[in-house]
TrEMBL record:
SMART domains recorded: HTH_ARAC
One Pfam family per UniProt: HTH_18
Domain HTH araC/xylS-type: 215-315
Gene3D superfamilies: Homeodomain-like
GO molecular function (one): DNA-binding transcription factor activity
PROSITE patterns (alphabetical): HTH_ARAC_FAMILY_1, HTH_ARAC_FAMILY_2
Keywords for the protein's UniProt record, in alphabetical order: DNA-binding, Transcription, Transcription regulation
Protein name: HTH-type transcriptional activator RhaS
Length: 328
């Protein structure tokens, strides 16, 4: 059996047209806050695109025979100080230099870099790559942070790392055209899976804190709203703490675990009902949000929002219908 090829992490470029040279320089400057110079200029290769998935920002580019150098400053929205960048190559070689240390990325290599420190990247001929901006706050909420490291290359021989790289590649290949809901869900899971890197001896250090436990609990609740058995015990187990401790953390926010579950379920239901593309029955919405009894769900929803689920759904459909008729 022939080995299966990994998805093309730069497949989004296949739908792009080449940019004029000035537009290319503007894109590199505005999005990456870097200066671009060419070893050999091939105008047909000046292709780049970017898209968001949840908290993650993806970008793909053909960087053949180009050198990008960081400019002074933190970039738009302070992104250099607030994110970690994960690089993956699809073809060719990218050399990165930061604080006197050089690293070469070959086909399907993965590297994590803190862009708050100036760096230079140089693409060889026929080089395409992809980068993901990961918020530091999202990593820290999961107990993972970077402690002044310049660049970090995970152990390429690790099966866990290979699995993570494969998932990143698949996400980059298909994520741009996926639905907003799927984008957010997959992005959240990818950030979770970055914790795999904490098992590497040279990886950034994992920390435990009340914020990490609370964030883990809330993520678990959000992803398991359809489970009618969702309770204090299961939430505490998912967060890796005792029931008493997790109850104390929610109490500090003026709530309880089950009150948070209840509110989150109703907010999810409201989002489903106002999404005209979903076109779900009230009983289906109740089931997806963890309510076994549609009548019980309707009472709880009206108590929370002052309107019945059916009224909210019909109102949303009327708004869409009016907008469509005005467009026609």
């Amino acid at each position: 059996m022939e080995p299966q090829m990994e998805p093309d992490v730069t497949s989004a470029l296949n739908h792009q047209t080449a940019r004029p040279v000035k537009c290319w320089h503007d894109m590199v400057h505005s999005y990456w806050h870097m200066e671009c110079s060419f070893d050999r200029l091939d105008p047909q290769r000046l292709k780049g695109t970017c898209w968001r998935m949840g908290e993650l920002s993806f970008a793909a580019a053909d960087v053949s025979a180009q050198q990008w150098t960081s400019l002074a400053g933190a970039g738009q929205n302070n992104w250099r100080n607030e994110t970690i960048v994960a690089f993956m190559t699809q073809s060719g070689v990218i050399e990165l230099e930061q604080c006197g240390v050089k690293t070469r990325l070959t086909n399907a290599s993965l590297l994590l870099l803190d862009p708050s420190r100036k760096y230079v990247q140089t693409g060889d001929s026929n080089t395409r790559g992809m980068a993901i901006r990961i918020p530091k706050s999202a990593l820290e909420a999961r107990g993972l942070h970077f402690t002044g490291r310049d660049m970090f290359v995970p152990d390429a021989t690790s099966p866990d790392v290979r699995m993570l790289k494969s998932l990143i590649a698949s996400t980059a290949a298909h994520g741009e055209r996926s639905s907003p809901a799927s984008r957010k869900l997959v992005a959240d899971h990818l950030i979770d899976l970055m914790q795999i890197l904490a098992d590497d001896p040279s990886a950034p250090k994992r920390v435990r804190s009340t914020a990490v436990a609370l964030s883990s609990a809330k993520r678990y609740i959000e992803r398991n709203l359809g489970d009618e058995a969702l309770d204090l015990d299961s939430v505490a187990r998912a967060a890796g703490v005792s029931t008493r401790y997790i109850a104390k953390l929610f109490a500090a926010e003026g709530s309880t675990v089950m009150r948070h579950v209840w509110r989150t379920r109703l907010e999810r239901a409201q989002a489903l009902l106002t999404n005209s593309a979903a076109d779900l029955r009230i009983s289906d919405v109740a089931w997806q949000c963890g309510f076994a009894n549609p009548a019980h769900f309707s009472r709880a929803f009206k108590q929370q929002f002052g309107e019945s689920p059916k009224h909210v759904q019909l109102t949303a459909r009327d708004v869409v219908a009016q907008a469509n008729s005005q467009a026609d």
